[in-house]
TrEMBL record:
Residues 105-470 form the GH18 domain. Gene3D superfamilies: 3.10.50.10, Glycosidases, LysM domain. Belongs to the glycosyl hydrolase 18 family. Chitinase class V subfamily. Its main location: secreted. The keyword Cytoplasm does not apply. This is chitinase. GO terms for biological process: chitin catabolic process; polysaccharide catabolic process. Keywords: Carbohydrate metabolism, Chitin degradation, Glycosidase, Hydrolase, Polysaccharide degradation, Secreted.
Length: 495
């Protein structure tokens, strides 16, 4: 846990969102603050982080003991408007069309609304030629009713970017407008509203257990799609904990698919709107899923094939290995190949499975390497022990590729520090695996962590190149017409 000293103009809300954590998580780490609306200049606050899985609001782990659940600020009201974005508006590269005989691989990227703060990563930074689907993360769910709502209206709807006009009427700005403009430029780029994630998943079980809750969830999720210009809905429930919840998950998908189809019949000329899920690699969790029943309603499955090891462990391990280690089994508590085989056995076609790839690394300190004891995680890019891929390897570290495990890491012998992450060589090997197994493509958590796609170190660019290049990706067209949107400028396509 790191610390932060309050300066003039700070608020608990601004500090929490700048660091990609919830207000409640920040408050829980600072019990000395009795009123979160009042903090003093010079006050030292504890900043939590480091042990949460990747799909937290700031990844998803297989069988990891959950951190304390947190709810977002939005349940009680609207936060103050976010400050104007520091991002510089820039022109987007021209779109590249499909190649003859394209295999149509999906390349799916998580875009986080909290990434627009300290990370300074904005919709216009999305490498549009290399990405076919954006999962905009995360919306939350009210556990008492099932209503789906935005987790940060400041970043999502209110932030004014350069050249955003002040217009009369009810209009939308923020990331939602920018995301629409990006998909308007790249007509193959589909956008989905991702609901849940690790932090908000405790809010799924109650509404999913009743017909009224499921109907409210589906109706409000599709209303957000209609208002905000999305092409689909992604549900990231981590994870149904028993047979009853697994059954309710199927019913939730059924209701959501029905609502999507009804909306499409009325407002989108019957075109297919997307419904996807994020799913685990831990057997304890995927073993409960009713895969064949779920698959009837889904367009594809996003496999969270990372976070197999991390700060919750006492043994340094690989966090995104493809295969288990026979020599050092403690270094591979989970593996992706076994999970993929299980999903296919559960009657999910490989082409519908999108393989998850990390754009970050997890650190282990005071260790002799994979399979050895460790103590602590040290610092990170934005949270303890978690490094953006683009910041790796750290100075003084040597990169190691293990092609038998399809895993890689860096090791600093002097500091005795290991960081588990994918190198370009392992990214290429995983792309080969995707093709050999006939899978649907790759998915990245999350986009801000990669090196620029024009560089030799970009994992996204290396993967896309190995899959046959940008012309070999899915070029099905996105939707731009949203006649039922509440926002006037979006209804007009931001003309």
């Amino acid at each position: 846990m790191s610390t932060y000293t309050v300066v003039s103009g700070d608020s608990m809300w601004a500090i929490s969102h700048a660091r990609g954590i919830t207000l409640e998580a920040l408050a829980a780490a600072n019990p000395q603050v009795s009123d979160t609306s009042q903090i003093e200049v010079g006050q030292v606050l504890n900043i939590p982080g480091g042990n949460a899985p990747a799909h937290s609001a700031p990844a998803s782990a297989a069988n990891v003991p959950p951190p304390q659940q947190a709810v977002t600020l939005m349940s009680g009201g609207v936060p103050p408007p976010a400050p104007a974005a520091a991002a510089v508006q820039h022109s987007l590269p021209p779109p590249v069309g499909p190649s003859p005989g394209s295999e149509g691989f999906r390349t799916v990227g998580y875009f986080t609304n909290w990434g627009t703060y300290e990370r300074n990563y904005h919709p216009m930074d999305i490498p549009g030629n290399h990405i076919t689907h954006i999962l905009y993360s995360f919306a939350n769910v009210k556990p008492d009713s099932g209503e789906v709502y935005l987790s940060d209206v400041g970043a999502d709807l209110q932030k004014h970017y350069p050249n955003d006009p002040e217009e009369p009427g009810e209009n939308v700005y923020g990331c939602i407008k920018q995301l629409y403009l990006v998909k308007k430029h790249y007509r193959h780029l589909k956008t989905l509203l991702s609901i849940g994630g690790w932090t908000y998943s405790a809010n799924f079980p109650a509404p999913a257990s009743t017909p009224t809750g499921r109907q409210t969830f589906a109706r409000t999720a599709v209303q957000l799609l209609a208002d905000l210009g999305f092409d689909g809905i992604d549900i990231d429930w981590e994870y149904p904990k028993d047979e009853a919840e697994a059954h309710n998950f199927v019913l939730l998908l059924e209701e959501t698919r029905r609502a999507l189809d009804n909306y499409s019949a009325q407002h989108a000329q019957g075109r297919r709107l997307l419904l996807t899920v994020a799913v685990p690699c831990g057997k304890k969790n995927y073993g409960l899923l009713r895969m064949a029943e779920m698959d009837k309603y889904l367009d594809f499955w996003n496999l969270m094939s990372y976070d197999f090891a991390g700060g919750w462990d006492k043994i340094a391990g690989h966090m995104a290995n493809m295969f288990p280690s026979g020599n050092v089994p403690d270094s591979t508590p989970f593996n992706a190949d076994e999970a993929i085989t299980a999903y296919v056995a559960g009657r999910v076609h490989p082409k519908k499975i999108v393989f998850g790839l990390p754009l970050y690394g997890r650190a282990f300190e005071q260790t002799d390497g994979p399979g050895h004891p460790c103590q602590g995680v040290g610092e990170g890019s934005w949270a303890p022990g978690i490094w953006d891929y683009k910041a790796l390897p750290r100075p003084g570290s040597e990169e190691v590729n293990d092609h038998d495990l399809m895993a890689s890491w860096s090791y600093d012998r002097t500091a005795r520090k290991m960081i588990s992450y994918d190198t370009p060589e392992i990214a290429v090997a995983k792309a080969d695996y995707i093709r050999q197994r006939g899978m649907g493509g790759g998915m990245w958590w999350e986009l801000s962590g990669d090196a620029p796609v024009g560089s030799e170190r970009s994992l996204i660019a290396k993967t896309v190149e190995r899959l046959g290049g940008v012309g070999n990706l899915d070029h099905s067209e996105n939707l731009l017409d949203y006649p039922a949107s509440r926002y006037e400028n979006l209804r007009k396509g931001f003309q």
